[in-house]
């Protein structure tokens, strides 16, 4: 008994499922005729199928092939094909073939039929067949379209009837398979949303965009009232409200991974949820399939896999454990350059709760959409000036390493990147940050730094009113200028424009801290830390100051103990140890501060701390007093 298999590779198997040697083009003829209603075709048709329309050489090649096929059939004792002078026809075809999957209408139920279709169509049809004929490639594509049509028909019928758990799971699997084959099918999006009960997700994303539009509109109106004439303000209102309502439009190809991992989490299920999230977002559309996203785990040669799609992205996700807590590591890679566009670790919590998985899904969907949009925006801006793009990236790298020399190097690179084209919001926002961070590192010694930060933040907003960069930097600058209400308003808008961005959430937490709302600040910074468990020291510093202000001195020290370089928190360390009666330990930090910064003026530092309410400044001053700052002379560098 022989069987012919065309999915996953064209091959002939014997009774023991061992591959049988047979001319590949002979197997191709066999498969072609098994799919023909008449089970026969003229020699001319077969020749064109195998070698195209060059009838002269094609007929010669066919005669040679027929001779080889007859010889092999004689050796096997089985005549699959019969050849006459004009016709090729089936004689005794294999007893079984996966070509007949579409005849599953005889199956006991629609779900049995769908199961067979899914099992068969997970593999590619006739991959790697050595046939260069255009006629063959057209025929294969026609067959693949027919396969998808059969699968969609069965899927729609099954989705209408699915109620049992196993049936629903099968429909999910089939729908995701179709989505990977044909991402543009809106009917499949609807089936996925219904079968995954994703109405809540649709509502969530709708509310997210509505909140974004409302905040943008409110901000724009307020700014217009301050600076624009009435007639101009009306025009700007219309334009900005329209910008607020605009949704991201990014071409995507979603190919869900089938990989499963342990740790109590089903990675494939999470990937499926993320895929459904994109459907629910409904702001991502295929545009000529010139950009693709692969969701799953990237392997070697991933970039080559996506050459056919042009510019491509890969979202790689891995599960790991740290301190008995599952972490999800995600990184977005541009396939062509193998460059990491975005990466983060998320704390999945102690158990795989549905609520936590939903939170993770929503965060990744919005983050991924935003990062791809941002990447495409940068590519478009720097398309004709790669040098400027590399200088922008260099500036961002310097900005990630906080020191005054690095901040100034970052500023120099970013300003160079803007030469000739100064309206690139991410670069303008980054320059603003170099000034505000320098103000912090110089203990607030130069208010002109904040003026420059404000200037560049406003330029970033003017350049792109619908992205977070300018609002984020303006919010932080307003915090240091003690304009607390406007600071919170700007950061709230930045967070709405880029939901789930851990850095913006952390800045928002810092603004709340300086607005004398340490309880809200602590809750928000904890959410930023959960999004990014390997947190920057600045996150932990905000958490430590919030804890100190709330009277939780041991907790403040715990946060400081988790920092990679705790020198940033020496003042709060000294105050915390002093408040719990450990004056000797507090004194160590006092002396280290004066060694590091011999000109440190404690009175001036307390006066420039941008706390909104006096009680917060008082508890900070009390800790510094108990630590002994006013006992140590300011010239104590040698202590």
Outline:
With 639 residues, the protein is an alpha/beta fold.
What does this structure look like?
With 639 residues, the chain is α/β, with parallel strands linked by helices. The protein folds into six domains: 3-97, Winged helix-like DNA-binding domain superfamily/Winged helix DNA-binding domain (Arc Repressor Mutant, subunit A); 104-133 and 143-195, no CATH class; 199-245; 254-381; 382-499, Serine Threonine Protein Phosphatase 5, Tetratricopeptide repeat (Alpha Horseshoe), CATH 1.25.40; 519-639, Serine Threonine Protein Phosphatase 5, Tetratricopeptide repeat (Alpha Horseshoe), CATH 1.25.40. 60% of the residues lie in helices and 9% in strands. The protein contains 26 helices and twelve strands. The strands form three sheets. The protein has a five-stranded mixed sheet with strand order 8-9-10-11-12. A four-stranded mixed sheet has the order 3-2-1-7, covered by helices on one side. Strands 4-6-5 form a three-stranded antiparallel sheet. α6 runs antiparallel to α7 and α14 runs antiparallel to α15 (425-441). The longest helix is centred in the middle third of the chain and has 29 residues, at 199-227. It is elongated and about 110 Å long.
The main pleated sheet reads as: 5 strands, mixed
Overall tally of structural domains: 6
**Overall average pLDDT:** 80
End-to-end separation in angstroms reads: 92 Å
Q: State Rg.
A: 32 Å
Runs with pLDDT <50, length 5+?
228-261, 283-292, 296-311, 633-639
Percent helix among the residues? 55-70%
Give the key terms.
five-stranded mixed β-sheet; elongated; alpha/beta; Arc Repressor Mutant, subunit A; single chain; disordered C terminus; four-stranded mixed β-sheet; 639 residues; 6 domains
């Amino acid at each position: 008994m022989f069987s012919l298999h065309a999915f996953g590779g064209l091959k002939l198997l014997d009774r023991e499922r061992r591959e049988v040697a047979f001319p590949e083009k002979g197997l191709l003829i066999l498969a072609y005729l098994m799919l023909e209603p008449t089970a026969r075709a003229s020699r001319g048709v077969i020749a064109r199928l195998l070698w195209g329309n060059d009838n002269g050489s094609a007929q010669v090649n066919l005669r040679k092939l027929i001779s080889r096929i007859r010889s092999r059939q004689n050796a096997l004792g089985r005549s699959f094909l019969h050849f006459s002078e004009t016709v090729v026809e089936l004689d005794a075809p294999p007893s079984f073939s996966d070509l007949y999957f579409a005849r599953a209408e005889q199956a006991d139920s629609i779900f049995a039929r769908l199961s067979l279709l899914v099992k068969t169509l997970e593999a590619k049809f006739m991959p790697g067949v050595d046939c260069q004929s255009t006629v063959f490639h057209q025929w294969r594509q026609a067959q693949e379209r027919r396969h998808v049509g059969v699968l969609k028909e069965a899927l729609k019928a099954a989705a209408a009837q699915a109620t049992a758990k196993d049936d629903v799971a099968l429909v999910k699997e089939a729908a995701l398979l179709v989505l990977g084959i044909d991402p543009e099918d809106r009917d499949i999006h609807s089936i996925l949303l219904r079968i995954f009960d994703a109405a809540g997700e649709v509502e969530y994303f709708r509310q997210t965009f509505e909140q974004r539009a409302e905040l943008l509109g409110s901000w724009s109106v307020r700014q217009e009232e301050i600076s624009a004439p009435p007639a101009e303000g009306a025009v700007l209102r219309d334009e900005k409200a329209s910008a607020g309502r605009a949704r991201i439009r990014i071409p995507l190809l979603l190919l869900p991974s089938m990989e499963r991992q342990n740790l109590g989490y089903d990675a494939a299920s999470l990937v499926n949820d993320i895929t459904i999230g994109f459907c629910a977002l409904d702001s991502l559309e295929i545009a000529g399939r010139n950009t693709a996203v692969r969701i799953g785990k990237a392997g070697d040669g991933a970039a080559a896999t996506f050459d056919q799609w042009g510019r491509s992205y890969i979202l790689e996700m891995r599960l790991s454990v740290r301190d008995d807590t599952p972490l999800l590591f995600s990184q977005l890679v541009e396939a062509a350059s193998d460059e990491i566009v975005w990466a983060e670790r998320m704390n999945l919590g102690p158990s795989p709760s549905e609520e936590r998985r939903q939170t993770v899904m929503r965060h990744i969907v919005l983050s991924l959409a935003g990062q791809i949009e941002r990447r495409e925006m940068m590519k478009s801006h720097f398309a004709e000036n790669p040098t400027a793009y590399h200088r922008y990236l260099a500036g961002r790298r310097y900005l990630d390493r906080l020191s005054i020399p690095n901040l100034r190097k970052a500023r120099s690179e970013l300003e160079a990147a803007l030469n000739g084209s100064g309206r690139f919001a991410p670069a303008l926002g980054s320059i603003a940050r170099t000034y505000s961070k320098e103000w912090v590192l110089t203990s607030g010694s130069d208010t002109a730094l904040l003026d420059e930060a404000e200037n560049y933040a406003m330029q970033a907003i003017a350049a792109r009113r619908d992205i977070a960069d300018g609002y984020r930097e303006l919010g932080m600058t307003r915090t240091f200028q003690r304009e607390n209400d406007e600071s919170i308003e700007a950061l709230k808008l930045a967070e709405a424009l880029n939901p789930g961005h851990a850095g913006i959430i952390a800045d928002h937490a810092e603004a709340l801290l300086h607005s004398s709302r340490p309880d809200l600040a602590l809750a928000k910074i904890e959410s930023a830390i959960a999004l990014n468990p390997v947190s920057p020291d600045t996150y932990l510093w905000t958490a430590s100051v919030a804890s100190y202000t709330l009277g939780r001195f041991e907790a403040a020290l715990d946060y400081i103990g988790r920092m990679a370089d705790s020198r940033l928190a020496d003042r709060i360390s000294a105050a915390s140890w002093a408040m719990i009666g450990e004056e000797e330990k507090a004194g160590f930090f006092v002396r280290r501060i004066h060694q590091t910064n011999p000109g440190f003026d404690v009175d001036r530092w307390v006066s420039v701390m941008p706390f909104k309410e006096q009680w917060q400044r008082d508890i900070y001053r009390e800790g510094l007093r108990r630590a002994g700052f006013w006992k140590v002379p300011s010239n104590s560098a040698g202590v």
